[in-house]
Write a structure and sequence with these properties.
seven-stranded mixed beta sheet, alpha/beta, globular, oxidoreductase, NAD(P)-bd_dom_sf, Rossmann fold, glyceraldehyde-3-phosphate dehydrogenase (NAD+) (phosphorylating) activity, 124 residues
Length: 124
């Protein structure tokens, strides 16, 4: 199921709204909005980012961008690059993929929602 990024963004920012079930999210895009959604989701118990997909950014640069974010300040958690396809953020493993089209993501990752965080949308 594809979810509008503003819906997920609202759920992440809202303090009073809690998701009833544990929600697994795949981020499509790791730009300014994608990093912000991941940053907020890592400190919530009801939302878990299981994968990040960006065809142009590798895992080492993702860790660097999140750790030293010039817009939102440095990340206050722990970030480790396990290997080329896995990041460990606050003790949770997040799979890193680089698929150009989001239609292939369901075959790769186990998730319930796709949060598109790119201004140029992927084709299905």
């Amino acid at each position: 199921m594809k979810v509008n990024m503003y819906i997920i963004f609202f759920l992440l920012w809202s303090i009073s709204v809690k998701i009833e079930e544990h929600c697994h999210v795949n981020l499509a895009g790791f730009g300014r909005i994608g990093r912000l959604v991941l940053r907020i989701a890592t400190f919530r118990d009801d939302i878990e980012v299981v994968a990040v997909n960006d065809p142009f950014i590798d895992s080492k640069y993702m860790a660097y961008m999140l750790k030293y974010d010039s817009t939102h300040g440095p990340f206050k958690g722990t970030i480790w690059v396990v290997n080329e396809s896995t990041l460990e953020i606050n003790g949770k493993h997040i799979k890193v993929t680089s698929q150009m089209y989001i239609s292939g993501l369901r075959l790769v990752n186990n998730f319930f929602y796709i949060c598109t965080c790119k201004m140029s949308f992927y084709l299905f």
